[in-house]
Amino acid sequence: MRIYHGSDHILNKPLFGVGKEDNDYGSGFYTTQDKEKAEQWALVNGDDNAICNIYDIDEEQLEVLSLDDYSTLAWIVELAYHRGARGESASLMAEKLIEKYKIDTSKADIIIGYRADDSYIDIVDAFLQNQLTIEEADRLFRKGNLGKQVFIKSAKAFDALNFAGYYEVTKERNQDEINARADVERFLRNRRTDIQLSGFTPFGIKAIDAINTLYKYNKEYKYYEPSVSIMKEIKFNTNPNNPHKKRGNWSWQRLVIHIQKHI
Length: 263
Hints:
9 helices; four-stranded mixed beta sheet; globular; disordered C terminus; alpha+beta
């Protein structure tokens, strides 16, 4: 498999164990099979230099996990697990979704999934705040044409990387991608306004619905279907005199009320 990495410098030997844990899928090396996406990433990150590094990797002996097999909800959960969420209520939502929908990536050498950045994390946050349904989030991700990342995760996968060269990127940033980001930001801004001023409630599966009912993704027909209901009372330590009170010490009822007041 040929993969590309956009950067501001030549990187002929990526190092295992180097990188931030709060990236999309954790600490590792982020590449893509889409050369144009790598070029755009190089233009974003490079000040004076924009470099597209080229690699070949033989994935035959590697464990490759594709998040396409697990749906957009699984991808959102993976992002929330590594990047966290903004705000207390969104963080509580993320914690419960991670408990229910986080897939086991411990044995994966490579993970393939959407590429995200700060502008698209806004979509994740809007979903966690019950401002979007999972179906709307999926459409917004696709509208932005994020592209797929090939995330080199394990030491074994790093050892299988072979540097195949590089070239300087001289083209301009893709205006279609810039416009798509602007459209997404406009949609989210209008949605927040509709909720705050008109009391609009999105129709579909929101984060709180995915917590109250276990959903499974039907990959063949591309829709979510409810599985076993888990409408159980979630008990937290709500002792108001506890000086070491943590985020998770809210009652579920208080969490719902808090969310309703802030959307």
